[in-house]
Input
Amino acid sequence: MLGSGDFKYERVPVWPNLPKYWDFGATSDVDVNSSDEVHVFSRGKHPLTIWDLEGNFISSWGEGEFSNNEHGIFIDSHDCVWLVDANYHLVTKHSPDGSLLTTLGEKMIPSDTYYGHPFNMPSGLSISSKGDIYVSDGYGNKRVHKFDRFGLLDKSWGKFGTGKSEFAIVHNLTVDRFDRVFVCDRENNRVQIFNSEGEYLEEWNDLHMPGDIYIDNDVVYIVEQTEVGGVSIWTLEGELITRWWAHKGEGKGTLISGHGICVDSQGSIYVAELSPANRVSKFQKI
Output
């Protein structure tokens, strides 16, 4: 058993049930739609795969459409699927069946590094209650970009560093119901929190390389990367609820290379793992 109190979990030994001869490759990120269909974004032959909660295969799409650095996924309130491709420097919006609806950025044309316009190896995306689009950008840039609901750039903030509103790698982000923007400043081992206009509010520091962050019912779930990392669960006020480490204790071996995280309607957690694990780990809430 992992976790504590009202947040206890068991790792499902095998999830999902991969079709014969399939493998994910490096599994970058994961999200779930309103029907509890789990969408996995990975760097294999089938970049976008869809599964039910039991791990049964539903469908796939996107074959041949992405680079070898598929990075972030976000499913909006209409079940449209937003994908972030770091090496193509692109954000794309797709219908639930995979049809391309919108593109942000220019394919394979990066902006200037560190302080540039969108994009230079973007990493993640989230959408506010007002429809504003926030993109973490990412590896080449050290910035967060805010677009309006029509995809027009509103503002950008951030630069390289360790101070307030400065980032090492802006690895992913999410937005809470108050439209506060939670940014994974991974190599600085913290999450920085901003208001909807990019003004610094606070930061959480008791973290080890936060790679992805997900908010569900005002509970914050963070995957912490490398073999020292694991999963930590927090209140919106920054109080730690529970945590398990991948390298020691009850959590030892449950994660190897966590990179993305989401939660289904039953409260179970899914963690996308890059190589060497190349898998999705499901933690069933009990």
Summary: Residues 194 and 201 are 5 Å apart (CA to CA). The chain has a mean pLDDT of 97. The two ends are 9 Å apart (CA to CA). The longest strand covers residues 210-216.
